[in-house]
Amino acid sequence: MKIAFFSDKHANLPALEAFFKDLESVNVDAVYCLGDLVGYNVWPNEVVNEIRKRNIPTIMGNHDEALLSPISKEVQPSNRGLTRAMVNDQNREYLINLPRHLSLSFLTNNEPFNLLLVHGSVKAINDYMLIDYPEDEVIEMMQPHKADVLLCGHTHKPFHRVIKTGEGFKHVVNIGSVGKPKDGDPRICYAILELDLSTSSFNSETLKVSFRRVVYDVEKAATAVENSEFPNSYAEALRIGK
User: Fold this and answer.
1) Which pLDDT belongs to residue 76?
2) Which of 22, 147, 193, 227 has the fewest Cβ atoms surrounding its Cβ within 10 A?
């Protein structure tokens, strides 16, 4: 089973289009989205529409959650205020009703092998799961869900961390960002996990995790920001991957 996970599109249509084009070349069996479809750019409806029409299972991100707040007048337009004003009613209804997490259960090596999908962490939708997150807290979050793998986004910084436990190994995979990378590389980033009948929580090497980086039309996305009411700093962040 080969599964693609992507997150944090942030209304960046050129980046999402590049992701879907690249996806055609990797022959995955399933695709999951870990939230934050909107914010920071001018194509929130187009991004949501592209994901909805493909029926991609999706969880809520903190920017999607922000749409629960009503539109209000702002002296200085904010990212969330501008986004709320752009998102149409149908897509807003979709975003605010997304699940907060998803669990995927497999039977590999005649034993359960479970994946838990969150946006930030189990604790909070806007929690920052960084590579040095306290190990004991990570294990504590995963245990109630019997999760062998915790997949997250939100920080826009990809990593694969393996934690040794008394019972075997746990994996934490931050899948990075398609629409707004922050690790110094402006290319889109998403993750692919590969499982088979040999995959086991007792052998960390039986789960294959890879990250794909793909070039997209960054300048088109950055120029769209500069031609909008969003701060120009968002455009520069796209150009340098920060």
Assistant:
1) 80
2) 227
pLDDT level of residue 147 (50, 70, 90 thresholds): very high
Buried b vs exposed e over 23-59: b needs ≥16 C-beta within 10 Å? Answer: beeeebeebbbbbbbbbbbbbbbebbbbbeeeeeebb
Structure tokens at 47: 């991004």
Q: What CATH number is given to the structural domain containing 212?
A: 3.60.21.10
SS (H, E, C) 51-109: HHHCCCCECCCHHHHHHHCCCCCCCCCCHHHHHHHHCCHHHHHHHHCCCCCEEEEEEEC
Alpha carbon 107 to chain centroid distance? 25
**Sign of the alpha-carbon dihedral angle for 56, 57, 63, 67:** positive
Instruction: Provide the number of structural domains found in the chain.
Output: 1
